[in-house]
Amino acid sequence: MLRLINLELQKLLENRASKVLIFISFILPFTVLVLSSIKINFFGFFTLELGELGIFNFPIIWHITTFFAAQFKFFFAIVVVSMIGNEYSNKTIKQNLIDGLSKKEFILSKFYTIVFFSLVATLLIGFASLVIGMYYSSYTEASIVITGTEYLLAYFIKLIGFFSLCLFFGMLIKRSAFALAFLFILFIVEWIVFGLITWQFNSDIAEKIQNFFPLKSMHKLIDQPFQRVIMSKFPDKAELAYDYAVHWYEITIVLGWTALFVFLSYRLLKNRDL
Questions:
Q1: 100 — alpha (psi -120 to 50), left (phi > 0) or beta?
Q2: Does residue 225 have a cis bond before it (omega within 30 degrees)?
Q3: Whether the predicted model's global pTM rises above the 0.85 cut
């Protein structure tokens, strides 16, 4: 595994564009540190500091930072599809196979790299969340600090699932730009199918089915935290309540899609005449 990861890292770090995108994908989530220190002055009447609103208290901070960081996953998605696109355009995929790398090892090298970068991103956002939380949170007891860390696991699984989808589209299309376009097409298709199911049955059934779709299931791993923040400020507003927890079955669905995308990527390569 380490050999395959090292092989892939050498390819990525030799490409200037890939290095820039990897740097951006790791640095942008840390803008949450800047966000925590923002002070908004309302025409001199009062100053609003986001860090003082309690949104960076434990355990809610794990929810907020992982949701925020997940919005920047598109940058590394470009790296993933470029990994495949460059292999075909530079014809290095054929050379790798000639040099003794099996088709299975080729796909695994891409997948292991996805897991590696997802793990690094998770550790970084976890560290950033811990630092911000220890600075701003009113609750620093160990039992409270570790509560909610399941969002880090959800973030990790979400990245792996999304990048595995990008890997599959990269193998299917072989061109980076078109592979990324297919992500947008899939998003539209999912909502069209959702609309058709709603029209045929009802919105409740349609929503339950939609939660099994690839992009929607990944999105559901970390629900939006804004409503939760409002709930913490107005606990008597029962109509604001919603299920924001990370559920095992949501993780299972995304892991299932991940396994399918990696398998299909391998089948495409195995059956393709290079």
A1: left
A2: no
A3: yes
